[in-house]
Amino acid sequence: MRSYTTWSLVGAMAFCTATVAVGIVPQDRVLAAVAVGVGAITTWHSWYWERGGPWWLTALAVATGLGLWWTVVIMSAPTIAVALPAITIAVVTAAGPLAGWGWTAAGGVLLLLPTIPVALLEGPGMAVLIAVAVAVGYGVAVTLIRFTHYGWGLSLELDRARLQAAELAVMQERYRFAADLHDIQGQALHVARLDLQLARRLVDADPARAAATLAEVEELLASTIAETRSLAYGEREVALASELANSGELIRAAGIELEVVGEPRTGGPLDALLGLAVRETTTNLLRHAQPAHVRIDFPSGGVRIVNDGVDAPIREPRGLARLGERVQAAGGVLTSRAEGDTFTTEVRPA
Q1: How far is CA 266 from the centre of its chain?
Q2: Residue of 150, 30, 46, 151 whose CA lies nearest to 89
Q3: Which residues partner with 345 through β-bridges?
Q4: What values do phi and psi take at 332, rounded to 5?
Q5: How many whole angstroms separate alpha carbon 213 and alpha carbon 339?
Q6: pLDDT digits over 25-38, tens only?
Q7: Is 345 helix (H, G, I), strand (E, B) or coil?
Q8: Is there a contact between 343 and 314 (Cβ–Cβ < 8 Å)?
Q9: SS3 state of residue 310
Q10: Strand-pair partners of 297
Q11: 347 and 274 Cβ atoms separated by less than 8 Å
Q12: Residue 182 exposed, middle or buried by CB count within 10 Å (0-12, 13-18, 19+)
């Protein structure tokens, strides 16, 4: 976009210079040559359209442009030459040290000053006609060049927006990965801790059962490592049916009565998130509650888990809050609420 804008402006300045020179040649070849020189300086200055040219080039462009305009007035030369001073002032006041509408207005005043001797020598009618022509030409030049800068500013904003969108996508992916990693390892580490505590108590009283418990912990950790590897390589899928089976085993192993009512509807867009909800809720009730009974049912194509282990006011766990955002993005609703001694987590289509 920068190259396109630069060459467009440089090409436009060169075209205007050639047009003005061709219009003057039949009447004054010397003045046409001067106009070419002034146009060349303006074209050179337009190369620096983005940040403004060096001060000496800006001063040279303004001086030669206004000099050409005064020459046209004094010599009664073709007024088409005023196009070059108008473009010059419009260019130098669009960027750099003279950027700003104040300098643009001052440039317009400088362009209108030569109409004073025209009014004195040829009458006010001619002066007004030339002033209108100058004002219109200068206004068009300022509008076009300012619009070019405005378009360039929009391009920069779009570029920044694309970068921010890319950074946001990376952050969202990291957030998703962290949430999935929490789902995988949070439950497994908690269950492994409970089993290790049990094995420590049984190591003297029942060595065989302690050994079996340690084997279960080893198998659980191996499964967790495999799931973590699958997550890292983007191969992991969480199905509701498998999570129900895994969570059911964990809940019963903890000595909690489990009641499953109905059959889940699998294969929908929320299937993986329903499985995550079951996993996250199972982890929470094992870690934060002491329920005697857990009930799981499947209303309206969703899943609902109710446990009776609430013994104090609680707030929604952070894992469920993060999962709720993902469910909402997928077109579902996650709610969790405490009623008396029960805590209910439900995920359903919106």
Answers
A1: 35
A2: 46
A3: 305, 336
A4: -125, -175
A5: 36
A6: 888 888 888 888 98
A7: strand
A8: yes
A9: coil
A10: 261, 304
A11: yes
A12: middle
- Per-residue pLDDT of 206-256, as tens digits, reads 888 888 888 888 888 888 887 777 666 544 555 777 778 878 877 887 778
> CA 129 to CA 168: how far, in whole Å?
58
Name the nearest CA neighbour of 284 among 306, 260, 255: 306
- Alpha-carbon distance of 66 to 56, in angstroms, equals 15
Residue type for position 133: A
Q: Tokens at residue 234, please? A: 């983007």
Question: What distance in Å separates the CA atoms of residue 38 and residue 15, rounded to the nearest whole number?
Answer: 13
Low-confidence ranges of the chain (pLDDT < 50): 234-235
List, in sequence order, the alpha helices (H) in 206-310. 207-232, 240-253, 271-288
| Strand order from edge to edge, sheet including 293-297 | 257-261, 293-297, 303-307, 342-349, 332-339
Q: How many CB atoms lie within 10 A of CB 345?
A: 26
pTM over 0.85: no
End-to-end CA gap in the chain: 44
Q: How far apart (Å, rounded) are the C-alpha atoms in residues 130 and 73?
A: 10
Nearest to 181 by CA among 123, 252, 231: 231
Question: How far is Cα 200 from Cα 193, in angstroms, rounded to an integer?
Answer: 11
How far apart, in whole angstroms, are the C-alpha atoms of residue 14 and residue 90? 15
